[in-house]
């Protein structure tokens, strides 16, 4: 069992930056593939970025070159650095461990607005 708690969301202007954090507890963090998903109102949940337990990171085309996912296994934390934010990045961002059938956090709201 893994508990995930996201933080770092907020309101930012277009072109701005935010850094999301997801703190994990309850199991061996390092064995899990970790990911960030997002869900905008009226849209399906979409995968934003993945950092596997062992392997290269992967990103949705819409965020490549702007977002960076990373993990610190010593701190049981995964991060999402978001730069050059756009209006269409507005969504609830959710942390995931172990794939879609795994564990989910409650989400953190990111709003990009001028």
Structural class: mainly beta
Number of helices: 0
Strand element count: 11
Q: What is the terminal separation in angstroms?
A: 40 Å
Tell me the Rg in angstroms: 13 Å
Low-confidence residue ranges: none
Strand content: over 45%
Specify the helix fraction band: under 10%
Query: What is the average per-residue confidence, as pLDDT, rounded to a whole number?
Result: 96
Q: Give the biggest sheet.
A: 7 strands, mixed
What coarse outline follows from CA principal-axis ratios? globular
Task: Summarize the helix and strand pattern as letters.
Answer: EEEEEEEEEEE
What does this protein structure show overall?
- The model has no long low-confidence stretch (mean pLDDT 96).
- Strands 2, 4, 5, 6, 9, 10 and 11 form a seven-stranded mixed β-sheet that branches. Strands 1-3-8-7 form a four-stranded antiparallel β-sheet, with no helix packed on it.
- By secondary structure, it is mainly β.
- The chain is 0% helix and 49% strand.
- Strand 4 (34-39) and strand 5 (46-51) form a beta hairpin.
Note the main attributes of this structure.
single chain, 114 residues, mainly beta, 7-stranded mixed sheet, 4-stranded antiparallel sheet, 49% strand
